[in-house]
Amino acid sequence: MNWLTEHKIPLGSWIEHFVDWLIVHGASFFDAISWVLSSVIGGVVDALNWMPPLVVVALVGVLAWFLQRRWSLTLFSVGALLLILNLGYWSEMLDTLVLVLMATLLSVIIGIPIGIAAAHRPWLYQVLRPILDLMQTIPTFVYLIPTLILFGLGVVPGLISTIIFALPAPIRLTYLGISKVPGELLEAGKAFGATPMKLLLRVELPAAMPSITAGVTQCIMLSLSMVVVAALVGANGLGKPVVRALNTVNVSQGFEAGLAIVLLAIVLDRLCRRPGMTED
Fold first, then answer.
1. What is the dihedral sign for C-alpha 111, 95, 136, 21?
2. Residues 39-72: b if buried by 16+ CB within 10 A, e if exposed
3. 280: helix, strand or coil
4. Distance CA 176, CA 186 (A)
5. C-alpha to C-alpha distance for 228 and 236, rounded to whole angstroms
């Protein structure tokens, strides 16, 4: 037993040396990524802040009606945003909204093709499964250490950590949706002479769309759960007042900022659901 504990495997040292190697050889690369992402996010946030809040509220109301065709959801979305505006967290809400949408967009762009490839190649999913389990089970604060070192303080390390945390959802649910497509549909498509690409676009993806949509909504919720964590590395948004309230034991500020996060989460979740989709 003493021999086992005295001969520790230096996993932490290996990771530290790897991160140091990345810093030495990839500093310009990571600086470029940080500049691009921060510029895009900053530009979108500035554009939303330039618009009058009531115009943004009206646009969200129109979008809610266009996507879901439900007056109840439209009125709730407008009321939720007006309440956030009344509480004084409008600017923070916009920062959080852009961060969540950017993280979700990048996670979906990366995750859906990987999920499709894994569904068509079972060996690939067997390789990915332990990696996805690791990404979902490692404490989220652990992600902040290497991303903070590589990208510095600001919104970028929060964004990268959020993507790592949320990415398994679209991969897993895309894989599940594609792999569960009925064999009869695939055989019918092949019988009509569909190429593999047409089979994917016209048969597999439409049949798997409910599962893929669920992956997108889960990705949004997971991204929102990282808002407070991202605030610890300098990301703006609703996480900052929550952290300040925690440090000062300010119950009212913590409740109001937490309520704003909840309202934003509900609005995004309902807007991204497929029309007619019911609760599980």
1. positive
2. eebeebbeebeeeebeebbeebbeebbebbeeee
3. coil
4. 16
5. 10
Cα separations (Å) of 116 from 35, 146, 211?
A: 31, 29, 12
Q: In b/e form, how buried is each residue of 146-156, taking b as 16+ CB within 10 angstroms?
A: bbbebbeebbb
Tell me the pLDDT tens digit for each residue of 128-181: 999 988 888 887 777 777 888 888 778 888 888 888 888 999 999 999 999 888
Contact 261, 96 (CB under 8 A): yes
69: left (phi over 0), alpha (psi -120 to 50) or beta: left
**What angle separates helix 239-248 from helix 251-272, to the nearest 10 degrees?**
150
Percent of all residues in the chain with a pLDDT value above 90, rounded to a whole number: 22
User: Quick one: tokens of 46?
Assistant: 């500035």
pLDDT at 184 over 60: yes
Please state, in angstroms and as integers, the Cα–Cα distance from residue 262 to each residue in 38, 266, 267, 270, following that order.
Answer: 25, 6, 9, 12
Q: Tell if the pTM clears 0.90, that is, is over it.
A: no
48 and 94 Cβ atoms separated by less than 8 Å:
yes
Q: Are 138 and 226 in contact (CB under 8 A)?
A: no
Give start and end residues of each alpha helix (H) in the chain.
2-6, 11-50, 53-68, 71-87, 90-120, 122-137, 140-151, 155-166, 168-179, 183-191, 196-199, 205-225, 227-231, 239-248, 251-272
Separation of alpha carbons 132 and 101, rounded Å? 21
- In this predicted structure, the answer to whether residue 279 has a pLDDT above a threshold of 80 is no
Both tokens assigned to 40 = 């895009």
**Distance from C-alpha of 155 to C-alpha of 1, rounded to nearest angstrom:** 46
Condensed to tens digits (0 to 9), the pLDDT of residues 219-266 reads 888 888 887 788 877 778 888 888 888 888 888 888 888 899 889 988
Question: Rounded CA gap, 235 and 241, in Å?
Answer: 12
Residue 95: DSSP 8-state: H
